[in-house]
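To assess whether the prediction recovers the assembly geometry, we first specified each molecular entity separately, as shown.
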Amino acid sequence: MYFRYTGVRVRNLQRSLRFYTKVMGMKAHLEGKMWHGGVWVELKSPNSSQRLELNYYPPGTKYYEKFKTGSEMDHLAFWVKDVDKRYAQLLKKGAKKGIAPFAQGKYRFAFVKDPDGIWIELIGRGKRPS
Amino acid sequence: MYFRYTGVRVRNLQRSLRFYTKVMGMKAHLEGKMWHGGVWVELKSPNSSQRLELNYYPPGTKYYEKFKTGSEMDHLAFWVKDVDKRYAQLLKKGAKKGIAPFAQGKYRFAFVKDPDGIWIELIGRGKRPS
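The predicted structure of the complete assembly is given in tokenized form:
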């Protein structure tokens, strides 16, 4: 038994697909339909084996629900080379503002949000003191 | 930039750690503290590179919130050899009931829930018709 992927629920599949591919640089490599009408698309970043699934449940299907913001999904983390540059670029490309870049220990962090409000952590090495 | 891990928020770190290690068979391999008092533990299954982080925010710390059940975290998927056997075993070990095993296409599925109510999908190959 092994952990294989994380599936997040999205409110608008095309919007989320666009976000995770065009803004976050992932690639969709598998997709399918569930027996009840739900749709899933699996994504990976080039050079990483981590899998993210987008799950969409059309209104009227068995597992549709009115979207509620909750606590369970804390964040999706992306490793980046330059946190500050990437943070600015992602905002320009349409990611929602989260937390501006800051340092902690040897690392630098920032947060943006996806179209459904999921927090996305950017983590990278800290800047060397000059 | 690449997707590195999923972080879920837990209400009781020891309870969730016990669940993901003793029941779901994962191993904790990294842990740390956030500047604001939050605690994280990173887990992997033996034989898989997928990372799951448990995030705990103690009451009184900056990112603590009253836990709300929401829609974003759809499910965590685990690949298993025998869905029916594993489903029965996980219930015995304390996982909460989700959806009893069923077939779809070439695969077999079942769902249980973690201590915070996160849906856990069990997916495995379908049984050959006898």
